[in-house]
Amino acid sequence: DNGKDSYAKPELYRTQANLLRQAGVAENAEIEALYQQAIELASNYNSSIFQLRAAIDLSILWQKEGRNKEARQLLSKVYSTFTEGFGNKDLQEAGVLLQNL
Fold first, then answer.
1. What is the pTM assigned to this prediction?
2. How far is C-alpha 5 from the geometric centre of its chain's CA atoms?
3. Taking the CA of residue 32 as centre, how many other CA atoms within 13 Å lie in the half-sphere pointing to its CB?
4. What 3-state class would DSSP assign to 83?
């Protein structure tokens, strides 16, 4: 793996999970596992924004399953790592989602 490939992997896992979810061709557990992989890899690569994006998507999945407490805990943990950039679309989306959870 070179650095570029590694950096893109979290976003690839997240995108794959989103496509499977939208197509309705996978179980939620499989989709959840892909989001979890994306979050873990992004954390390993210190890619906060990719970690946040995957956490948002997993939180939305959990919210639809009625798992609001878990969703809020996950998203709060990732969101709280940011100290700036709150005008960013992803951070704004996370903030709104946190309010709704």
1. 0.90
2. 19
3. 14
4. coil
